[in-house]
Amino acid sequence: MDYEKLANLLFPDVDKTPDYYEEKYPYRKLSKKAEVTRMAPSPTGFIHLGNLYSALADERIAHRHDGVFYLRIEDTDEKRKVEGAVDLIIKTLRYFDIEFDEGAGFPEDAEQNQYGPYVQRQRVEIYHTYAKDLVKKGLAYPCFQTEEELEELRKQQEEEKALTGYYGKYAKDRDLTYEEIEKNLAEGKPYVLRLHSQGTEGKEIVFKDEIKGEVKLPENIHDIVLLKKDGIPTYHFAHAIDDHLMRTTVVVRGGEWLASAPIHYELFNLLGFKMPKYAHTAHLMKIDEETGGKRKLSKRKDPELSLNYYMEDGYHPYCMKIYLLTLLNSNFEEWHNQFPDKPINEFPFSVEKMNQSGALFDKDKFMNISKNELSKLSEDEIYDFLYTWAETYAPDKKDIYFADKEKMLSILRLYMGVGMKRRRKDLAYAKQIFELISYFFTEEADSSADDFKMDEAEKKLILNDYLERFSYEADNTAWFDMLKEIADAHGYSSDIKAYKANPENFKGSVSDIAEAVRIAVTGRANTPDLWTIIHIMGEDAMRERIKKQL
Questions:
Q1: Whole-angstrom Cα distance, residue 107 to residue 540?
Q2: Tens digit of pLDDT for each residue in 152-205?
Q3: Which single residue of 276, 312, 354, 528 has CA 20 to 30 Å from 508?
Q4: Are residues 275 and 152 in the same domain?
């Protein structure tokens, strides 16, 4: 077979050689310890916790020694592509403070985008150049087998109890003559381009996985598809070329890809590329409530797998990073407890310390971390976070809640103890905070007669008396003394101890008076200091709400 002639027959329009691209995309000028990592999702419109888990590992590996972390979009499967998915990926990862140094999402002519394009369907010319080179070397060939013929082959292999797939004696189009290929092309028969595998059945490959250590797997013997019938590459072929030309040094990917390692091992060798270091991550697991055993997080069963779950509720990205780092590196939690004020980017992240078996996602632990870390933020940090979150996830509330910055800061000081020595540690996410403080921004309290312990007539007497006696200038002590006076005037005890000693002598205590005012003003039976609430809200708003109750 004249392979040069065959290559020109199959790729008449390809006029470049691999050397052209080797020169166009030279090795990056980085320090010795610097690594180049990538996130390479498919644009399916669903980005999940596992993606963020790997992306954080990629980002930390790259940036620990001033390396490069880039975004590549693997869109070779047109059926799975969702419109707007690339923007969604970038927006989602940006929410969690994962920033790329280059790649998809940057302007094409951006100074840092020297290794693009970063979308695979825009790189077809590159893949065809390397495919043509493999054909020239007798390492790839056109295969005209139909779906029906391949199905018949699979049935034959099952009957013979042989390994299924297209390989060895079953690879019927491996040995087509040039004339047969030319005739098939002239007849317009569709074909795929297959690898002529050099693997031997029974032999093994051995390589070092950065997480799992030494791995032994059977050599690849299958003539895998390199280019599909439409000329678009398969994942295996495209990723090998892209990782090489983009000069990727470490590939972090899910453990399910470990079975594909022999294919990639062979491709890198046959293409003449240096293989990057691979790090196959453990699956994110959870405890199944029904069985009590561990299982993988499921898109169907577990809403917390989707990153939208955390974005829509408004979990702080820093809290998520803290939690995922505890899963990624076994020594992070101890380090963070020892140095709570150090930036987490100073943590000496290590691929070797990554979890080898299933990483257990514990939502309760994540919630506790969120509460604790949120309580450490300064008033400006919490204000800015809530404002940014509201811009996207509560736009109808943004202009109302943030119209008066000082008012909002006063509310946050009251509810979260911002700026105080003792901080509140039971708030975990933005939506929860917004719901808690919502009554400050409505025209009336969300309360009904059923919320009050006293009957309607008694409630009106108490609230009318409160409005008559109220003075906005009174400090907290004087204001509470006024509540005691109302209690004494209406048969309630102004002394809690006296009430507890002889409850039958009173209708109730001063706390019942305070509760009636609290519910009328806020719609809540439990709130922080009511005097402070009233002075943040303002006298007019307070009086208006009580009048609506009356």
A1: 53
A2: 999 999 999 999 999 999 999 999 999 999 999 999 999 999 999 999 999 999
A3: 528
A4: yes
